[in-house]
Amino acid sequence: MILILASASPRRREILEEHGQSPVVIPSNIEESLPEGRVFSPEETAMYLAEQKAEAVAEELKRGVFGAALRAAAGRAAESAEGAGNFLVLAVDTIVYKDRIIGKPRDEEDALNILRSLKNAAHDVISGVCLIELAQNLGPCRPRFKMCGKQVFFDSTTVTFGDYTDGEILAYIRANPPYDKSGSYAIQSNWGSHVISADGSIFNVIGLPWERIEPFL
């Protein structure tokens, strides 16, 4: 089976590779928005966005959209593994929640205000996960696919920060631009020294709840 990571996040790819996986990266380019007229909890928000990402990439595969990396992976799998015609699409959406959903900072001032709001308090890091398995049927013209299964779930970690100054925040975000990170920080960076406790998966805080995903691989 070929694992497709529907994300451009280097951190998610690195977690998978650290655990012996070799994902093919096909980022989903969907607009991350929620449908109007519905109220979502933070957990539902993360799961909905992850499902939208996975479904978008799965539809590309169904249409036979294959890049060079995927063709090469399929060729290697065909030589060495059973189920080489199957794909497992993995999409993850991670949000930070403290009184509201906290997204990626717009600019330095926004990052400063976000990290100010998180000090001396606990917040939740929630990852929605969607896994879609596709089976390949070789037809006369091009591969056809059917969905074998779909799993959607979430994982949550409660992180508590201690005290820090505005000067420490500014020094951190200027040395480590946080504009691609929900909550404006990376726990695996030196900002992790401000963590008093983390109740749950650290991998989840980094961006991919490995302990929950591993059984499906």
Give the SSE map:
Elements: E1 2-5, H1 10-18, E2 24-25, H2 42-62, H3 68-80, E3 87-97, E4 101-102, H4 108-118, E5 122-138, E6 143-161, H5 166-175, E7 195-199, H6 202-206, H7 210-213
Parallel strand pairs: 1-2, 1-3
Antiparallel strand pairs: 3-4, 3-5, 5-6, 6-7
Helix pairs in contact: 4-5
Describe this structure in words.
This protein has 217 residues and is an alpha/beta fold. The chain has a single domain (2-212), classed as Alpha-Beta Complex (Maf protein). The protein contains seven helices and seven strands, in the order E-H-E-H-H-E-E-H-E-E-H-E-H-H. Strands 1, 2, 3, 4, 5, 6 and 7 form a seven-stranded mixed β-sheet that branches. The longest helix is centred in the N-terminal third of the chain and has 21 residues, at 42-62.
In angstroms, what separates the terminal alpha carbons? 9 Å
CATH class, anyone? Answer: Alpha Beta
Question: Strand share of the residues?
Answer: 25-35%
| Number of beta strands | 7
The largest sheet is: 7 strands, mixed
H/E element sequence: EHEHHEEHEEHEHH
Number of helices: 7
Q: Tell me the helix content.
A: 25-40%
Looking at the overall shape, the CATH architecture is: Alpha-Beta Complex
Rounded average pLDDT: 88
**Count of domain modules:** 1
What form results from the Cα inertia axes?
elongated
